[in-house]
Amino acid sequence: MTTHPVTVEVNGAVYERSVSPRLLLSDFIRHELHLTGTHVGCEHGVCGACTVQLDGDGVRSCLLFAVQADGSSIRTVEGLATGPDLHPLQAAFSAAHALQCGFCTPGLLMTIESMLDEMSTMTEPEIRETLSGNICRCTGYQGIVEAVKATVARNEQEGR
Fold first, then answer.
1. Per-residue b/e over 54-72, b at no fewer than 16 CB within 10 Å?
2. H or E element at residue 95
3. CB 3.0 to 4.6 Å from 59: which of 51, 54, 86, 128, for a disulfide?
4. In the chain, at which residue ranges do the beta strands (DSSP E only) sit?
5. What tens digit of pLDDT does each residue of 35-88 get?
6. CB–CB of 131/104 below 8 Å?
7. d(Cα 149, Cα 115) in Å, to the nearest integer?
């Protein structure tokens, strides 16, 4: 079987692997790098559970091959917290009880976090539009919306 070299930076660390050309980025992250926070749900790009940030943009890792990410910077949910300190969005999710089973949470966090940098202020309709590509079967989304609103308000207060 033919393999291809892949070099990526994931959460600040550089990884070099030789992979099958058909290996999905989600499987590369989970099985080659052992970062299991990236969840695989539908494997069709619909549910958003596998969302990671590729060069700063939220992408569905189940729709990309690992070789397509060669030379890129990837951020997974494991890269949000700084040591024992939660990322402000993670802390807001906890405070707003914005998760139940937690399966969708990593994808939601990565989707929202990538949008926070682009939109310094987000209205509730914009938040809901941003969330529309991520399926959560447990929460009803209200806690998630409240967590995002709290994070946006905190960012505005801190001048971000």
1. beeebbbbbebbbbebeeb
2. helix 88-95
3. 54
4. 4-10, 13-19, 51-54, 57-60, 73-75
5. 999 999 999 999 999 999 999 999 999 999 999 999 999 999 999 998 899 999
6. no
7. 13
Is the whole model's pTM more than 0.85, yes or no?
yes
Residue 76 region by backbone torsions, left for phi larger than 0, else alpha for psi between -120 and 50, else beta: beta
Structure tokens at 99: 């998760």
For the chain, how are helix, strand and coil distributed in percent, rounded to 5? 40, 20, 40
Say if CB 107 and CB 47 are below 8 A apart: yes
Pairing of strands 73-75, 4-10: parallel
What is the distance, to the nearest Å, from the Cα of residue 52 to the centroid of all Cα atoms in its chain? 4
On whether the CB atoms of residues 89 and 81 are closer than 8 A, the answer is no
* Residue 39 backbone phi and psi in degrees, to 5: -90, 150
Q: What pairs with residue 59 in β-bridges? A: 52
Q: What is the DSSP letter of 43?
A: S
- Among residues 101, 73, 77, the alpha carbon closest in space to that of 89 is found at 77
Structure-block tokens of residue 86: 């939660």
Q: Among 25, 110, 30, which Cα is nearest to 63's?
A: 25
